[in-house]
């Protein structure tokens, strides 16, 4: 409505309105959960009023009222209070309902002076909150190209409390899957100012009362122009359509320049979609295997479980799935990941500067996040391969508010065992499965909850008389709350369990069932405080309860002669307080500084053995046992952990970073093998075993070339460690009540340099990584039985100086591409026999110093050809074929070297996991 027309209308109707306001009748009304329009019909039936409105304004609105002799205008105020509908009474015959705006019967005294000074409310920029206001008259505003756009009216105008500004807020989601969209820009065209959406797709912006043109745009989405008429505070939720523009290649730019700009060192972010073309073993899309191609992350060999990050042991990595710990994230002897690739959204790996909110491990954090369920429509993704089949389904529970994701994976792996170059494995059986479910619910714009449940199980039989099984179980609950624009918080509850059991049913009367259980529960409260553009704080607290059953053996069957064994349970409480500050010192210098104070208390009920201080820990130096009551503190450890990292811009696309971390680890793996074993047990620090400690220094330079087309980084590190757990020769670690007498604790050191060159754009993309790394341990003591290699530093089992990976993908067209991986690694250390001797008519073999030799070097080439489905818009599912050959060269890479005696001679033999090329074809489809 133009200003002149509005004034004329008000002058014509004001006399009749003023003369009739004192004659409003009363009515009595009772309605129970009926449509709101029933109120209007009751008014019309009991009075002479005729109401004018549009039915669709009230679709789905119900109400319950019970009033006696209430004025009609008071009734309307009550029933319309929670809507954006106003009303206007004219004479005693007409009531006009209006959406958003108010119909005025008088004008403010200074109305004409206000509009003479300012043509429109949109031009006001300074004293918006203090000047007297006037009725809102909207103005036509065209887009830059004059195109027709949709108009949205926001809020409910209030004639008695007019404001100059109002707050527009809301959430933007993807129309195809209901997932929130981050980093979208929302620009006010006439003001050239705006905001952007956060990680959860939410936004908030303060606008002058009146009409505005908003442009919403972002990479990969169609640009939208909106006309927004602001009457008062209100919400506008939008659903964005993927861009239909054809691209030559998929370019990941959501974290553009992140590698140069972030203050944290040694951070890696992996998106599952980025690795779908990689030729991994047996066609499995595996985010953890992809991590092994990046610098600083390695393992002991092909098919090995666990990770060695920057010279650390496999038990020094914290693997989190939606905040819950996963102790053994592998299937099938380490060949497959135990994480469903279609339910996993992303992985952030901290191998340098670990943020203060994480603790309990020395080397790294693998922070894995499950995808947010689709809240708009049913969708899914599945894959059929030669060994496994995988499926993930997503469905809305309450449309655009809550959704459920359910995924599962199972194997039909018998044939792969028969093809392995190992007689024992060829005659064995194995199976595994994993399931995951995630529920997400948006309560309102300030609160949402997420719950995740996960379970995996492996069972196999290598010999005909035993069955081995292990499982992971995890549950997590997360409540996110937004206090205001500057303060956000999260409450997290998790529970994790790892267990294994061995069932032996042989020909003798020694049948048994062995079981081990490791359980932990954690409460965590985290808070973010956006103090200013200069300071961003994160702080909180956590408490974790460990409960470990080190092992129990029960006789299997009534005829078994096996004695029952039960090792006492271990319990401990680990608590921590932490705070960190992301501090922008200047445009060039940014610091990420934090401190975490952790406190560990070993708890009773339990027994601790006391040994002499001036002797080796063995039966001869044992003094006594000391008993502790339930929840009595056995021993306390703790201290501050400093996390400091900084970035300095040498130019806009070149930065240098440095960091220092010190960390504590209170839980240890008992393992006499080179790699992670499914019979690994965990030991908590106590009177005899001290916590592990580490200091890590790192320095790196980071460069972007041609925008973000190429990324180059060069990083070096030096790590010192204390109280590393190792074992004595011939140690018995499982089911040993005096395990502290079988282990040693020593010092470690590691250093290395890491190079990464990544090409993000073009037909040819991928990365090249090279790591030179050394890792050493020293087990020194004044007592010979606790001294290894004369007390000198010697290479760890996982010390592999050279590690080179090349990952490439070439796109012939939008549908066809080829990929290749090449990996080279130095052979890991090993202990070899040097000769034999005869003593008391018996032959003996004497060995070299521990880890003084190496097995042959490892290298492997993998190739794949990838076929995307057609890009038709209307079809049931989008398909993707992956045809790959793992170990194209048929390289017989040794996994381990062992020795046997034949005809009085010692012979060296090697075992391999994949000694021949392994072809695979996998079909993936997404709907």
Distance between the termini: 47 Å
Oligomeric state of the chains? single chain
Class of secondary structure makeup: mainly beta
Overall radius of gyration: 34 Å
Task: Specify the number of helices.
Answer: 8
Report on the structure:
The chain has 927 residues and is mainly β. The chain folds into three domains: 3-99, Phage tail protein beta-alpha-beta fold; 111-240, Immunoglobulin-like (Sandwich), CATH 2.60.40; 258-926, Beta Barrel (Maltoporin, Chain A), CATH 2.40.170. Helix content is 6%, strand content 52%. It has eight helices and 57 strands. The strands form 13 sheets. The chain has a 22-stranded antiparallel barrel. The protein is elongated and about 125 Å long. The two termini are 47 Å apart. It is a multi-pass membrane protein. Pfam families: CarbopepD_reg_2, Plug.
Based on the model shown, name its key terms.
single chain; 927 residues; mainly beta; Phage tail protein beta-alpha-beta fold; Immunoglobulin-like; 22-stranded antiparallel barrel; disordered N terminus
Short description:
By secondary structure, the protein is mainly beta. Mean pLDDT is 82; it is low at 1-21, 117-133 and 244-255.
Strand and helix layout:
Blueprint lengths: L2 H16 L7 E10 L1 H10 L3 E3 L9 E10 H8 L5 E6 L3 E6 L11 H7 L32 E5 L10 E10 L10 E4 L4 E4 L5 E7 L1 E9 L2 E10 L3 E2 L2 E3 L17 H4 L5 E5 L15 H5 L5 E2 L9 E2 L7 E5 L2 E2 L4 E2 L4 E2 L6 E7 L13 E7 L8 E6 L3 E11 L3 E10 L2 H6 L3 H4 L2 E16 L2 E15 L4 E17 L4 E18 L7 E19 L4 E21 L9 E2 L3 E15 L4 E15 L2 E6 L10 E7 L4 E19 L2 E12 L1 E4 L10 E4 L7 E14 L4 E18 L15 E17 L4 E15 L15 E2 L6 E10 L4 E10 L3 E2 L2 E7 L2 E6 L5 E2 L3 E11 L9 E9 L9 E7 L2 E7 L6 E9 L1
Parallel strand pairs: 2-5, 6-12, 7-13, 7-14, 18-23
Antiparallel strand pairs: 1-3, 4-5, 7-10, 8-9, 8-11, 11-12, 15-22, 16-17, 18-19, 20-21, 22-23, 24-25, 24-57, 25-26, 26-27, 27-28, 28-29, 29-30, 30-31, 31-32, 32-33, 32-34, 34-35, 35-38, 36-37, 38-39, 39-42, 40-41, 42-43, 43-44, 44-45, 45-46, 45-47, 47-48, 48-53, 49-52, 50-51, 53-54, 54-57, 55-56
């Amino acid at each position: 409505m133009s200003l002149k027309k509005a004034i004329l209308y008000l002058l014509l109707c004001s006399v009749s309105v003023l003369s009739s306001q004192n004659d409003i009748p009363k009515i009595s009304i009772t309605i129970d959960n009926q449509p709101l329009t029933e109120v209007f019909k009751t008014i019309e039936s009991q009075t002479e009023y005729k109401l004018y409105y549009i039915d669709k304004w009230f679709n789905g609105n119900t109400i319950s009222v019970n009033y006696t002799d209430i004025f009609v205008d008071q009734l309307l105020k009550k029933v319309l209070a929670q809507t954006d509908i106003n009303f206007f009474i004219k004479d005693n015959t007409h009531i006009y309902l209006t959406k958003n705006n108010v119909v005025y019967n008088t004008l403010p005294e200074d109305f004409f002076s206000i509009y003479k000074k300012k043509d429109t409310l949109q031009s006001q920029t300074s004293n918006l909150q203090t000047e007297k206001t006037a009725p809102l008259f909207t103005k036509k505003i065209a887009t830059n190209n004059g195109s027709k756009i949709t108009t949205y009216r926001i809020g409910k105008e209030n004639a008695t409390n007019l404001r100059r500004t109002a707050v527009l807020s809301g959430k933007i989601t993807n129309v195809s899957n209901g997932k929130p969209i981050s980093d979208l820009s929302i620009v006010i065209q006439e003001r050239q100012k705006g905001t952007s959406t956060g990680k959860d797709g939410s936004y908030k912006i303060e606008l002058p009362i009146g009409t505005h043109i908003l442009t919403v745009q972002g990479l990969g989405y169609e640009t939208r122009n909106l006309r927004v008429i602001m009457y008062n505070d209100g919400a506008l939720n939008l659903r964005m359509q993927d861009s239909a523009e054809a691209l030559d290649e998929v370019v990941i730019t959501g974290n553009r320049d992140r590698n140069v700009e972030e203050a944290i060192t040694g951070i890696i972010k992996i998106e599952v979609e980025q690795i779908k073309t990689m030729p991994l073993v047996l066609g499995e899309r595996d985010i953890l295997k992809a991590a092994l191609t990046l610098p600083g992350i390695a393992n002991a060999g092909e098919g090995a479980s666990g990770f060695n990050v920057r010279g650390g042991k496999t038990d020094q990595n914290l693997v989190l799935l939606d905040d819950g710990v996963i102790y053994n994230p592998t299937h099938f002897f380490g060949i497959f990941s135990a994480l469903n690739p279609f339910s996993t959204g992303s992985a952030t790996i901290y191998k340098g500067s670990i943020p203060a909110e994480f603790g309990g491990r020395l080397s790294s954090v693998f922070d894995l996040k499950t995808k947010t369920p689709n809240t708009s429509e049913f969708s899914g993704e599945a894959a059929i391969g030669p060994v496994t089949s995988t499926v993930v389904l997503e469905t809305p529970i309450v449309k655009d508010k809550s959704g459920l994701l359910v995924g599962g994976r199972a194997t039909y792996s018998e044939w792969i065992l028969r093809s392995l170059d190992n007689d024992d494995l060829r005659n064995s059986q194995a199976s595994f499965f994993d399931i995951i479910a995630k529920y997400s619910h948006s309560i309102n714009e300030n609160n949402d909850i997420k719950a995740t449940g996960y379970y995996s199980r492996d069972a196999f039989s290598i010999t005909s008389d035993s069955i081995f099984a292990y499982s992971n179980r995890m549950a997590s609950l997360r409540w996110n709350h937004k206090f205001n624009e500057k303060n956000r918080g999260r409450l997290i509850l998790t529970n994790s369990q790892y267990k294994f059991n061995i069932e032996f049913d042989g020909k003798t009367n020694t049948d048994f069932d062995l079981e081990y259980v490791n359980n932990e529960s954690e409460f965590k409260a985290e808070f973010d405080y956006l103090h200013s553009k200069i300071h961003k704080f994160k702080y909180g607290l956590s408490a974790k309860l460990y409960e470990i059953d080190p092992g129990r053996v029960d006789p299997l069957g009534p005829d078994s002669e096996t004695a029952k064994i039960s090792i006492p349970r271990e319990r401990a409480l680990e608590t921590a307080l932490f705070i960190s500050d992301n501090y922008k010192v200047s445009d060039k210098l940014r610091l990420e500084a934090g401190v975490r104070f952790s406190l560990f208390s070993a708890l009773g009920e339990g027994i601790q053995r006391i040994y002499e201080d001036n002797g080796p820990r063995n039966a001869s130096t044992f003094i006594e046992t000391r008993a502790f009551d339930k929840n009595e503190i056995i021993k306390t450890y703790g201290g501050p952990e400093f996390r400091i990292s900084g970035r300095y811009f040498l130019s806009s696309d070149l930065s240098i970073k440095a960091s220092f971390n010190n960390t504590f680890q209170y839980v240890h793996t008992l393992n006499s093998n080179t790699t992670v074993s499914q019979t690994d047990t965990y030991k908590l620090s106590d009177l005899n075993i001290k916590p592990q400690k580490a200091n890590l220094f790192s320095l790196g330079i980071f460069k972007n070339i041609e925008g973000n087309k190429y990324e180059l980084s060069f990083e070096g590190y030096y790590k010192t460690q204390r109280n590393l757990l190792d074992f004595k020769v011939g140690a018995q670690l499982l089911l040993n009540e005096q395990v502290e007498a079988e282990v040693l604790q020593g010092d470690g050191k590691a250093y290395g340099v890491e190079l990464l060159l990544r090409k993000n754009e073009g037909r040819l993309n991928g990365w090249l990584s090279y790591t030179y790394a050394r890792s050493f341990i020293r087990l020194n003591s004044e007592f010979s039985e606790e001294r290894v290699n004369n007390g000198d530093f010697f290479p760890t089992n996982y010390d592999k100086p050279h590690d080179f990976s090349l990952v490439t993908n070439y796109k012939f067209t939008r549908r066809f591409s080829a990929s290749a991986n090449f990996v080279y690694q130095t052979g890991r250390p090993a202990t070899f026999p040097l000769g034999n001797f005869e003593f008391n008519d018996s032959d003996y073999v004497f060995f070299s110093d521990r880890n003084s030799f190496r097995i042959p070097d490892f290298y492997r080439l993998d190739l794949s050809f990838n076929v995307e489905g057609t890009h038709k818009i209307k079809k049931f599912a989008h398909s993707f074929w992956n045809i790959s050959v793992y170990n194209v060269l048929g390289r017989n890479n040794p996994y381990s070297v062992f020795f046997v005696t034949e005809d009085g001679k010692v012979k060296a033999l090697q075992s391999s996991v994949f000694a021949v090329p392994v072809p695979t074809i996998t079909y993936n489809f997404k709907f």
